[in-house]
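Records of this kind hold a single protein each, on a pair of labelled lines. Below, a sample record shows both lines together.
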Amino acid sequence: MNGTLVNYENKLPASAVEAIKSAQKMDIRFISTGRLKSEMYDYILDIGFDGYIGVNGVYIEDGDKVVWHKTIEPEKAKEIVDWLHSRQLEFYLECNSGLYASENFRKRGQSTMEAYAAYKGRPSTEEISVDYIFPEMIYDANLYRDDLNKVSFILESYQDHKESKKPFPDMKAETWGGVGEKALFGDLGLVGIDKGTGIAKLLEYLGHDKMNTLAFEDVQVDIPMLSYCEIGVSLGSAALKIKKCQII
């Protein structure tokens, strides 16, 4: 959703709403996003979706009913937080109840947010700050959570991402906010769950097959969705690796 439906400043263009309304006339009523439930703001939900797949397949909601939600076990979540603290890496925890930041994330994250804005093509960093990008970030909360979907952490070097795989071989370790060793963030999430598996679970719940399913996106995390759906469309801004997955 970020950069596709809603821009990176959390603004929803009128043209996007119009396009969705047109799609809904063809019975396209669910969306798949990396966003948490806490980030599905009213101005997005007011468009009128029947439901959505959130956190890249970890959470599925149909109306007010939770169809599927898989979280990281509390003991594992504690181990991740302790490991990040031991390496003095600033991070935030992605939970449906909110985003929970580590102690110095606001201060350390300033330069990272500026680099992220530049990476996304924003020419001016005048308004860029952690609070601007994450206006509802929660600080000074208990970081040992029992509702953890995923963890994102600021990379001091690409080696931090590589090292995260060693103590957590059963977790999915990825990066974002840049390509390859220029990535700004690492993250740890659940193995075997992605946007493609999320769509499959939703279809199973609805009693539908994947005929007439449509996916369009532009980043690497969308590859499983583009590959799974009957029709996959990559945006013009997508990297070559994404465009190779396009099925039309």
Observations:
- DSSP finds nine helices and eleven strands in the chain.
- The CA atoms of residues 5 and 16 lie 6 Å apart.
